[in-house]
C-alpha cells in the first residue's frame, strides 16, 4: 500500500503525485494539501477507510450504543497506534481522546473516542509508553454538524470550541490525539492547534477510520489551491478502488519541507457544496 496514501495525513493518492525535494520513493508521497501546507499535527494514521464493516462498527457504537463494538474498534486502533509508535520520539506519550461536549456525552452515555482509546490501550503491546489523559482537552460548546457548511462556516463552527483544561499533563510531551473518524482533518487540526498552544511538543493523530476523497484529476489544480488544513472539503468522494485497511508504516525520515509559504488563492470551491461526514 505504500505510495497509495499521503505519508503525512493518510489521504488517498489516486492521482499523479509529486515527491518532496530530495524524495526518491513513494514513501515520501504527499497529497496536494500536505504539499501546500503542513498540518499542525505530525502525522495522521487510520486503521482503514470509513466504509463497509468499519463504518458499520462505528455506527453501531455511536448511534446504537452497542458498546462491545468499541472493543473491536480498539483492537484495530491498537494495531494502528503500534505502527505509529515506532516513529514517535522516546518518552511517555500523552493520549488524548477528542472530547464530546458535555450535553452530547450525557445524551449518548459515553464518548466513543474515549471508549475506543481505552480499549486500544488495553491491547497495545507497550502500554507503559502511553498515558491516558482525559480531561486535558475540553469541548466548550456543541459544534453541530459540519454537513453542508462552506469552508468558512466550518472553520467558524469550530473556532474556540476546544480548550485545554490542565496543561501540565501535556506540556513538552508528545500527544497522541484519538478520534473515531477523521474526515477533513478540521477537528484534528483544531485540537492539535489548541494542544500545541498549551505547550504540547508535538501532536500525532490516530483514528479507527478515515474518509478518503479521490479527486477528479481534471479539477486538481483548483481543488488543491482552495484547500487548507483549516477547512478542507469533507469526504467528497469515496470511489475507492481498494478497500484494504491502510498500511502507514512510517518511513524513517521525511525530507525537509522546502515548499514556499502558503499562497492562498481566492475561494469558490465546488467541493464545499458536497459535504458529508463528521469533521
Ligand atoms: Zn496529506
Give a description of the structure.
The chain is 29% helix and 14% strand. Helix 2 (52-64) crosses helix 3 and helix 3 packs across helix 5 (112-123). With 279 residues, the protein is of the alpha/beta class. Strands 1-7-6-2-3 form a five-stranded parallel β-sheet. It contains eight helices and seven strands. The protein has a single domain (26-273), classed as Rossmann fold (3-Layer(aba) Sandwich). Helix 7 (186-197) links the parallel strand 6 (174-182) and strand 7 (202-210). The radius of gyration is 18 Å and the shape is globular. The model is unreliable at 17-25, 215-227 and 230-279 (pLDDT under 50). Bound molecules: zinc ion. Zinc ion (ZN) binds at residues 6, 8-9, 11, 30-31, 33-34.
In DSSP terms (H or I, runs of 4 or more residues), the helix count works out at: 8
Beta content comes to 5-15%
Structural class: alpha/beta
The largest pleated sheet is described as: 5 strands, parallel
Strand order in the sheet with the most strands: 1-7-6-2-3
In short:
The chain has 279 residues and is of the alpha/beta class. It has eight helices and seven strands. The protein is globular.
Keywords:
single chain, 279 residues, alpha/beta, five-stranded parallel sheet, 7 strands, globular
Question: Helix and strand layout, with pairings?
Answer:
Layout: H1 32-36, E1 44-49, H2 52-64, H3 68-85, E2 93-97, H4 102-108, H5 112-123, E3 130-132, E4 137-139, H6 151-158, E5 162-164, E6 174-182, H7 186-197, E7 202-210, H8 220-226
Parallel strand pairs: 1-7, 2-3, 2-6, 6-7
Antiparallel strand pairs: 4-5
The structure holds zinc ion.
Amino acid at each position: 500500500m505504500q505510495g497509495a496514501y499521503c505519508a503525512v495525513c493518510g489521504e488517498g493518492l489516486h492521482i499523479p503525485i509529486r515527491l518532496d525535494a530530495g524524495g526518491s520513493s513513494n514513501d515520501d508521497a504527499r497529497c496536494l494539501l500536505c504539499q501546500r501546507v503542513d498540518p499542525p499535527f505530525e502525522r495522521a494514521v487510520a486503521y482503514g477507510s470509513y466504509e463497509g464493516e468499519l463504518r458499520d462498527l462505528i455506527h453501531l457504537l455511536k448511534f446504537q450504543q452497542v458498546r462491545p463494538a468499541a472493543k473491536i474498534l480498539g483492537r484495530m486502533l491498537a494495531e494502528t497506534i503500534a505502527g505509529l509508535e515506532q516513529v514517535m520520539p522516546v518518552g511517555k506519550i500523552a493520549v488524548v481522546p477528542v472530547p464530546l461536549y458535555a450535553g452530547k456525552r450525557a445524551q449518548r452515555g459515553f464518548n466513543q473516542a474515549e471508549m475506543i482509546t481505552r480499549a486500544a490501550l488495553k491491547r497495545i503491546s507497550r502500554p507503559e509508553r502511553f498515558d491516558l489523559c482525559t480531561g486535558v482537552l475540553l469541548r466548550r460548546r456543541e459544534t453541530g454538524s459540519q454537513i453542508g457548511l462552506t469552508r468558512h462556516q466550518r472553520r467558524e463552527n469550530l473556532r474556540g470550541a476546544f480548550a485545554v483544561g490542565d496543561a501540565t499533563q501535556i506540556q513538552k510531551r508528545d500527544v497522541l490525539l484519538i478520534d473515531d473518524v477523521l474526515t477533513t482533518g478540521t477537528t484534528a487540526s483544531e485540537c492539535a492547534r489548541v494542544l500545541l498552544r498549551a505547550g504540547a511538543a508535538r501532536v500525532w493523530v490516530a483514528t479507527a477510520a478515515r474518509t478518503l476523497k479521490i479527486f477528479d484529476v481534471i479539477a486538481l489544480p483548483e481543488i488543491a489551491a482552495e484547500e487548507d488544513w483549516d477547512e478542507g472539503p469533507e469526504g467528497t468522494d469515496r470511489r475507492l478502488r481498494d478497500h484494504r485497511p491502510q498500511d502507514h508504516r512510517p518511513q524513517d525520515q521525511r525530507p525537509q519541507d522546502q515548499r514556499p509559504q502558503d499562497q492562498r488563492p481566492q475561494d469558490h470551491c465546488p467541493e464545499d457544496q458536497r459535504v458529508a461526514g463528521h469533521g
